[in-house]
Amino acid sequence: MKNSHFSYRTYRGKALKTLLVAGASIGAFGAHAQSSVTLYGVLDDSIAYVNNQKGHSNVYLRQGNLYASKFGFKGAEDLGGGTSAIFDLQAGFDPNNGTASSAGLLFNRQAYVGLQNRRWGTLTMGRQYTPYFLLVGPLASSTYLTGATGAHPGDIDSLDTTVRINNSVTWTSPTWQGFSASALYGLSGIPGSVGAGQTWSGAVRYAIGGVNLAAGFLRMNNTGRTAGFDAGATGSFATSALNAGYLSARAVQNAAVAGTWTTGALTLGLTYTNVEYLSGSYSAFRDTAVFNTYAALASWRFTPAFDVAAGYAWTLASRANGVASAARYQQVSLKQAYHLSKRTTLYALQAWQHASGQTLGSNGAIVDAVPDVGDSQNSSPSSTRSQFVGMLGIATVF
Length: 398
Prior knowledge:
Keywords: Cell outer membrane, Ion transport, Membrane, Porin, Signal, Transmembrane, Transmembrane beta strand, Transport. Residues 24-348 form the Porin domain. By secondary structure, the chain is mainly beta. Helices cover 12% and strands 49% of the residues. The protein is globular.
């Protein structure tokens, strides 16, 4: 019995030791392979007034003004050595009727997966925003004034969230002494036509103290198979009365530079953008159409809970395709926001735009230019030379 009792105690001690070692190993592995998945989103809605939408005034509910209404899932898994696997799935929707923002697209805003390394940067693949937007856009008026009424007329220069690229690969650098860079390539995947429908984008940004500077480039190629910008192209862009005559372009090319300066509660900013619609064999126009935009903004935070912003944008079209008096668009935008908490904000937006000169209509004929405030009225331009928009809304983030 004595020997049996000793054997049992010895076995029990060895077993306990084995369990403790195994538990420590599992714990170490769990700490090494930490992962997280986050559900996030925004609900944003407002009462909007427009003095002229295709000839009539209108009062209606409009979502996605201060922020786009959306929900998403994002996650990260620590792979060790400073590397993580990441993903983001983001869907836009209209809270006024429950429909998706884009028919037929579940995660229309973003859907990508990739690897992130503290030293070498981030590599992602899927449907993504462009470096042009992600690095330059935060310094433009759509960030400080909202895209709904603050984006440059018709979002002609794609500095709001209207451009996402399918089938794209993006590399983004870490930040080196205030400097960062990013590049994207969208593959159309058309057999025998590697370059058809492809997208290129690149941008750089530098931040030091209260100064932020950025420059970016974006080129979206058509497939060359249809008379419009084909759905098979990797990129797409906002359409409005400003560019209705140039939707059959063989390529759209954007370039932008922007800068902001912040001191205390005050931020001032300047932006210049250049947009070119290049003609091709299927195009309904013959000459390259150019739009240049010059813009300025100011933002002031009176208190942690209350801030205001104002902006001015001047967009000039080129004299081309038989247009002798080229279109001009002037826009003034205002924003007031009161933050009830870190998550919930009450806001008021106002904007006025005036158009002059002529441009090409959707049928290729020369027509009088008409205004599209921000990018909230792209499908409902004014029938007169001026358009005013006012909104009162609430946004909550989760």
